User: What shape does this take?
Amino acid sequence: MSRYSISPVSASALSAATASSVVLSGTDTTITGITQDSRSVSAGDVFCCVRGESFDGHRFALDAISRGACALLVDSPVEGVPETVAVMTVPNVREVLGLFAAAAFSFPARVLTTVGITGTNGKTSTASIIGSILRADGKSVEVMGTLTNVRTTPEAIDLQAFLHECVEKGVTHVVMEVSSHALDQHRVAGVMFDVAVFTNLSRDHLDYHKTDEAYFAAKAKLFTPQQSVLGVMNSDDPRGQLLLDVAAIPMVPFAQSDVSDVTIRVDSVSFRWKNHVIALPMGGGFTLMNALAAVTACDQLGVPVDAMIDGCASLGQIPGRFQSVPNELGFSVVVDYAHTPDGLQQVIASARAVCSHKLIVVFGCGGDRDAGKRPLMGAAAQEADIVIVTSDNPRSEDPALIMEQIVRGISRESCEVYVEADRAQAIASAISMAGRGDIVVIAGKGHEATQEVAGVHYPFNDVDVAKSALSHKKGSEL
Assistant: This one.
């Protein structure tokens, strides 16, 4: 939530460009900057009074004015505002902020070709594949999401500032992960996506959305005439099929039946689509569906098949997405971000399909999040031969309690279960157990570089820890 300079614009012009519901009072001043953080206000800024979970921006309006704000965006009266300050009143600041920020930055998305991707799993991989394909087609591309931002989808002002910067740099295409939180909070208002992609839907974020229906309703907002021109959706997924039936924009389905000659390995996937062979240097059965989503979306953008083939083949390693950790010990180690029951189930199924011996899984569940999914994660993990339950960002919760809730979901007697709160030790134990032909799956954190415990972020990366454990095991076997 930074402060950004904008081209000088009058409060009346900015109000008119935003929406007819904006009511302007006070002085029609010239605005030269925008922010929703009163601490970052500079002279000439408009301060946007956003209501959050913990703070109400209206409480800091006078502080912002004392720092030089010449205009306010509000949805309720603020006492004591000088007449020299422009006050733009709207029904709900959160709902209009995306459009307001887009107008402040001269609607940058209108100059760009934009692709928005939503769904529970696969957003990051699908976005990365689309980005690689578009670059192979000679486009200047920015991909934004979980790997590039603190939030999967930035706050509205930050997002519009980023899109404006893309235009300034000559970027032509932006591929964006769009989270359910962002859709529910109207962060992407002001962006009309050329293509919107739906990957799948399973249980996630119920600590925020409360019900599966509300979670899906948030995702479905991407597939409305106000948000996207065209939709691409996974018709193998029941919610995707529902979108196909009810969406008020043109929808193009994709399904596993669209492909043939599928080959899936730990480190690669290939398939035949529209009589063309497409191969990616990334393993896992779910990669097939992510790649299919990507090529279907790119097909709607008019990208030639040759660029799709080249883009998929040249795909770089996506951090923490079925990421293979190389070693010379005769077994495979895979790190994946899977942190939902369905995601973990898919990763385990993909590993099982190519595993010639034991499958060992290390995972945990985050604290201060949906506790109801913890036994479901345990149930998903029990399809492995050995399960090591450990910590995964316990935050303010007791790791032992989280692990106990996970273990309650494990009922298969033939599955060996171990509990180790120290994640580094859990990973080391899994690798020490592994032998030739085994696969070790380290799930949950993927690309993350820290472990959050009691409000402190400690340096921690699963790939680095796995490499260290592999090096130690190799040394001990010499």
Observations:
- The chain has a mean pLDDT of 94.
